[in-house]
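Lab notebook, bench 4. Continuing the backlog of folding jobs that were queued last week. Each job is logged with the same field layout so the records can be merged later without manual cleanup. Today's entry covers Putative oxidoreductase, a 245-residue chain. Filled in by technician R.K.

JOB TYPE: sequence-to-structure
TARGET: Putative oxidoreductase
LENGTH: 245
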Amino acid sequence: MTETWIVLGASSTIAKAFIRSVAEQGAHVILAGRRMDDLDATAADATARGAEGATPVMFDARDPATFDGILDVATSRPGTLNCAVFVGSMPPQDAIDADPSILDGVIADSLTGPARVLQMLAPHLQTRGTGAIVGVGSVAGDRGRVGNYVYGAAKAGFATYLSGLRNALGRHGVHVLTVKPGPVETAMTEGLGPQPFMTTADAVVADIHKALQKKRNTLYTKWIWWPVMTVIKLIPEPIFKKMSI
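JOB STATUS: finished
OUTPUT FIELD FOLLOWS
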């Protein structure tokens, strides 16, 4: 049966690695993003790798007018329909402190935009009774930290949304996977300097596929972030307020 993957934020480094992987499996890919020239190049590469087809679609998480086009293309596809969300933005916290209006875009990119698309898609997946959703969040959403708490808040909200969506759609045969990467070698992390337990986009994608096969609910990647974040979440607030992590 034909599989279709909607990829939101298809120009990101991790998204491109994911697109390569499902293209090699023969899936049809719907590449949703803002940079149409980049999407066209990714579509050509996906087709060359064996994708059943590749369709670039304009998508801006801050512009709901672009959402319907994705659904129109996706719901016309036969077979199993899946969606992977790689959308997000992480401006420096000090930039947001200097200009609080930046906050709106961060929340739209990492939470409200992708959540709204998934909410529109959910009834179609429920009717089909099959499919998967991969939502990429961040370990930054596990606890508000002084260095990136706006980004962390957006990712925390997205993780909570995915948890509820998993509860709702899981009753209808649709699997929802929440992915919480630590630092990944991407354009977003350039300039941040050495980061603990840094990983690569290809490694994250390999972990995602393993988690999908096992029907995991939440994936930390690298795995070491699960015990690390468990400890961080247990630190009492009076102590945590004095820490710089």
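OBSERVATION: The radius of gyration is 18 Å.
SIGNED: R.K.
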